[in-house]
Amino acid sequence: MKYVVMATALAALAAPAVAQPFAGPWVGAEAALEDYGPHQGEAFALVAGFDIAIAERWNAGVGGRWTAAGVTETERVRRGQNTSTTRVALEDQWGVTARVGRRFGERFFVFAEAGYERFHVNAVRELRADVCAPPNGCLISRLDGSFDEEMPTVGLGAEWALTEQASLKASYAYGDSDAFERNRFSLSAGWRF
Length: 193
Known about the structure:
The two termini are about 40 Å apart. The protein has an eight-stranded antiparallel beta barrel with strand order 1-2-3-5-6-8-9-10. Helix content is about 5%, strand content about 75%. By secondary structure, the protein is mainly beta.
């Protein structure tokens, strides 16, 4: 009996591992269009994560993102002899997600995800005189309305495996926080190890 057990164990060790599509660690770069209602623009992020096969055609995983360049908007308005400048920039953006999805064949993966994101809203309004006068120079007033924001997110997406390692992903994510509702449409290229 012990020889049968040893032979079975050796056969299992010698058998080649079956590759699971859309499983293992991955890294990527993402380009997105983000709409925050009054503010919208492009965002570029670095993404990474890890997926595992949980059933015959189902995978689950976790991921993280750090946005290298987010939405920035500047508005200038003339007010009599003065110019008002308002600048809003979303900075220090990062987030985590969990996803679960179904594989269709060896190259196509459809998933749903939920996550959490945090970012800093840098919002500053300055009023400057067109003609500078002492003692304050051109600056008449400066109002800093900056704050930190936390946002839960939900989304859907699809991933296409181009090769065993390279893939393309398209996704939509909706976020809702105290100050903003956000719609994000993104495309990313990834590399799986």
